[in-house]
Write a structure and sequence with these properties.
This protein is mainly beta. It has 2 domains: 434 residues, Methylamine Dehydrogenase, Chain H; 75 residues, Immunoglobulins (Immunoglobulin-like). 4% of the residues lie in helices and 38% in strands. The chain has 4 helices and 37 strands. It has a 6-stranded antiparallel beta sheet, with no helix packed on it. Strands 5-4-3-30 form a 4-stranded antiparallel beta sheet, with no helix packed on it. It has a 4-stranded antiparallel beta sheet with strand order 6-7-8-9, with no helix packed on it. Strand 36 and strand 37 form a beta hairpin.
């Protein structure tokens, strides 16, 4: 019976993998351990947004008159929110496009506030947040003890609008400006003079020399509804910032008001303590990062902060990237704990790097997201490589964007020097509400000339492992509220046993023991359905366990 089980597992764990010498683009790997779903991406050099299945087949696409303005999102209601770039002008645009390709709404912040760029955030109430340049003159910089030979300095602002989907246009309902929270310690006769190290809640306007216009270069934002806070990825300073969204616009311009009582001052910052004079180069953790965001609650590591650390190898003098997670110190009221020095934590809670490290590198753009099954999807933006890793850092799905400067490429065509970059990709599960009643049949590969075959695997159990046809693993008592005991079939007992895990119904590993144990303390786990996985002779045995009832 064991041999039959192993045979079934080998079938389930077979991998669709392509490594012939001429392949350069499209699907490289698909396995049962990958989350079955659809991946959305907008090539930076193109006007088309694509949705592909796990075999790299296009299942839908949307056309626009604009090239990608970087971010794109598909909402549960089936509407696509896509940013675009107006070529030849310092202008960005956001379009809302329905499933059939009709543009329902188009909006630009340029006429009233400045150029929108990089990322957007759609709020639960339907409002939209933009990252927008906040143009400042050399005279304004000089008033704050700064100098530049440039004609303009691009500071940053966050603009929230309520879109009018019927009449067009939008109403600005909230604003936050970085310029309202600056500090300088160069000239006591100038504006905003103070001791930088004593005010980490403020932004040192003169930390960097102003020899480039793009002073801050915020490249991402995310909203946490429970905390009513916004997280910003500040590329130029290699920091992440968190600010209070519960303020009014007036309060956001000051240092009081809102849930925090701190107005629009920074509630938390992390990544480069040199910026607020509380560290050295060796204390820096972030290096030109992207996609700083909260992991969704209910997912593995929910509530923690994940980001793509583009130039993580800087201190080593090497070109490599990493995907990192941190746990900010926060109390039950949503207040960030700070006692001086660099903001905690001292280091990352989790990190993904390739082996060798330099095999994974994207100097700019890029992102990563935790998936519902516990896997992590990574967009290595330069070169347009998407890949999914499991909890052992094994690549279970891999794809390279086949759309370059001149549209879809020919399979086997070299991608060296071809601009097939992608800002970010997002993977949606097959039961995502946007897909209800939609035609998601494969429409063929995006690239030209691919002839490979591929299998879409059935959805795996919440553990991320193939479900076995028969189990020889007994667990008792079941249900349990304090301890569970494991008992193996005599035949299996002779096999090598390792890697014991308890995984909840959404795929989060709640207990793990690499060496076999017959007793597991479950008294501190929340009530619910779990899955026990045990590696026996290289085969994962999977059985449900009810805890707390």
């Amino acid at each position: 019976m064991v041999s039959k089980i192993i045979f079934h597992v080998m079938l389930l764990c077979s991998i669709t993998s392509f490594s012939f010498s001429q392949q350069t683009i499209g699907l490289f790997r698909n396995s049962p351990e990958a989350m079955n779903g659809y991946t959305l991406f907008a090539p930076l050099a193109d006007k088309t947004t694509y949705l592909i299945d796990n075999c790299g087949q296009m299942v839908h696409s949307w056309e626009s008159e604009y090239r990608s303005g970087l971010s794109v999102y598909l909402l549960e209601n089936g509407l696509l929110y896509r940013s675009g770039r107006v070529l030849g002008a310092q202008e960005g645009v956001l379009e809302i496009i329905d499933w059939d390709g009709n543009v329902l709404w188009s909006y630009s912040t340029t006429p009233t506030h400045g150029r929108q760029h990089h990322d957007i955030e759609i709020l639960p109430n339907g409002n939209i947040m933009f990252i927008v340049w906040d143009n400042r003159t050399p005279a304004e910089l000089q008033e704050n003890a700064g100098n530049t030979s440039l004609s303009v300095i691009y500071s940053e602002q966050i603009i929230e609008v309520e879109p009018d989907l019927v009449g067009g246009g939008a109403t600005v309902v909230w604003e936050w400006k970085a310029w309202d929270h600056i500090i300088q310690d160069d000239d006591s006769s100038k504006n905003n003079y103070g001791v930088v190290s004593a005010h980490p809640e403020r932004i040192d306007i003169n930390y960097k020399t102003h020899n480039t216009s793009d002073w801050l270069h915020i490249n991402g934002l995310d909203y946490n509804e429970e905390l009513d806070q916004i997280i910003l990825s500040v590329h130029a300073l290699s920091e992440l910032w968190i600010i209070d969204h519960s303020t009014s616009t007036q309060e956001a311009a000051g240092s009081s008001g809102g849930n925090s009582g701190k107005g629009g001052d920074l509630l938390y910052r992390w990544g480069n303590p040199q910026v607020y004079q509380h560290g050295t180069a060796q204390d820096q953790k972030l290096f030109k990062q992207h996609h700083t965001h909260w992991i969704k609650e209910g997912y593995n590591d929910g509530g923690k902060i994940m980001l793509f650390n583009n130039q993580a190898g800087t201190l080593d003098g090497l070109n490599y990237s990493s995907v990192d997670i941190i746990i900010p110190p926060i109390d039950n009221a949503g207040n960030y704990l700070y006692q001086g020095g660099p903001y905690a934590p001292q280091d990352f809670d989790w990190r993904y790097q390739s082996s060798p490290k330099t095999a994974f590198y994207s100097q700019v753009v890029s992102g990563a997201e935790r998936l519902p099954n516990g896997n992590t999807l990574v967009c290595e933006g330069v070169g347009g490589r998407f890949f999914e890793i499991d909890d052992r850092d094994s690549i279970v799905w891999e794809y390279i964007n086949p759309v370059g400067n001149n549209g879809p490429m020919l399979q086997g065509e070299t991608i060296t020097g071809v601009f097939n970059n992608v800002f970010r990709c997002i993977k949606y599960s097959t039961d995502y509400p946007a897909f209800a009643g939609k035609d998601l049949s494969p429409k063929g590969n995006i690239e030209i000339g691919s002839t490979h075959t591929c299998e879409i695997f059935e959805e795996l159990s919440p553990t991320g492992f193939a479900t076995l046809y028969k189990t020889k693993l007994s667990v008792y008592p079941n249900p349990s509220h304090d301890f569970i005991y494991l008992e193996l079939d005599d035949l299996l007992g002779a096999q090598e046993v390792s890697d014991v895990r308890l995984v909840n119904s959404i795929g989060k590993v709640c207990y793990r023991q690499e060496d076999y144990t017959e007793t597991i303390d479950v008294s501190k786990l929340k009530s619910g359905l779990y899955f026990l996985n045990v590696n026996i002779g290289g085969v994962f045995y999977n059985t449900p366990v009810v805890i707390g009832f």
